[in-house]
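Prompt: I keep going back and forth on a fold encoding question. Comparing notes only helps if you start from a blank page. Show me how you would write down a chain together with its backbone fold. Please set it down just below, with no commentary around it:
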Amino acid sequence: MTERTDLGPEDQKIVTLARSARARNGVPEGAAVRDETGRTYVAGTVGLPSLELSALRTAVAMAVASGAESLEAAAVVSAADALPDADLAAVRDLGGAGTPVFLAGPDGAVRRATEA
């Protein structure tokens, strides 16, 4: 992963949406993904006794369930320093290798960018 602060407006938008989901729902992570048509899907961490999903995997699942055929980008807002391999794999499954994934801190500042 590399330091990334020069996001375009569409990428900054998904970071802002992810941050809002995290704050609004009081969950450890918020995530947003943008599909090939520009639609966005926003989610927070799911923590039920019978179902646990990261915010990013939840957002990818929402995109798939809504008919998205690909992803252009993804963003996660979290206190974590890195994203789990399973999260990146979910983005790669739908968006393909090379899909940008941005990791921002709770303040919304993007700390790292990687490719799925």
Observations:
- The first helix runs from residue 9 to 25.
- Helices lie at 9-25, 55-65, 85-95.
- The mean pLDDT is 94.
- The longest strand covers residues 71-77.
